[in-house]
Amino acid sequence: MNSARPKIKVPWETLDIIVELINITLLLLIIGYTAINYMDLPETIATHFNANGEADGFGGKLTIWLLPGIALFIYLMMLVINRVPHLHNYMVNITKENALKNYRLSSRLVRFTNLFCLIIFALISYEIIETSKGNSFSVLGIPFLIFTLVVPLIGIIFVFNYQKKINS
After folding, report:
1. Cα diameter, the chain
2. For the chain, which residues make up each domain, given as ranges?
3. What is the dihedral sign for C-alpha 130, 126, 35, 32?
4. Distance CA 18, CA 23 (A)
5. Contacts of range 88-97, beta carbons closer than 8 Å, 24 or more positions apart
């Protein structure tokens, strides 16, 4: 960690506001959907799914609150992390000239990572609740597995290329 990095506040742009509003909305939907459906859940619910989207692990219905709890924790931690972009890890030397561009990129990466995590938690919560209520429509399975592998790889490629562009 380089303590000589400039400590600047990264101003939010329209994209940052939109992504943050989507993140908050997803978090509230996860919590709200869980709360609305909690009383209708059986005492034993699905807690794990195999690659085909079939339930293969079960637990008490109280475990449904783990996902909203973890989602809330991750969201709050990423908010905290985004307040100190000068402490993030960078592949380039941060100077006064390039700090804002790199801090903005890093903050957006954290914001989009948060979005990705919240989408995954929303899909898993939905699947657990719907499966437990006896509905057979599956959002998990091979497409979900591919989504969770491909999207991060595309993000990494984009960030590497963009970082090279803004620092050349």
Report:
1. 58
2. 14-166
3. negative
4. 9
5. 91/163, 92/163, 92/167, 93/2, 94/2, 94/5, 94/6, 95/6, 96/6
- Distances from the Cα of 8 to the Cα of 41, 106, 112, angstroms: 48, 13, 21
Going by C-beta distance under 8 Å and a sequence separation of 6 or more, which residues neighbour residue 154?
Answer: none
pLDDT at 3: 62
Q: What radius of gyration, in Å, describes the C-alpha atoms of the chain?
A: 19
**Total-model pTM:** 0.84
| Residue 152 pLDDT > 90 | no
Q: Which of 51, 42, 45 has its CA nearest to residue 66?
A: 45
Q: Give yes or no for residue 35 having a pLDDT over 90.
A: yes
Query: In the structure, what pLDDT confidence band is assigned to residue 22 with cuts at 50, 70 and 90?
Result: very high
With H, G, I as helix, E, B as strand and everything else as coil, classify residue 68.
Answer: helix
Averaged confidence pLDDT in the chain: 89
Tell me the three state secondary structure of residue 114. Answer: helix
User: Which tokens go with 85?
Assistant: 């972009």
* Amino acid letter, 59: G
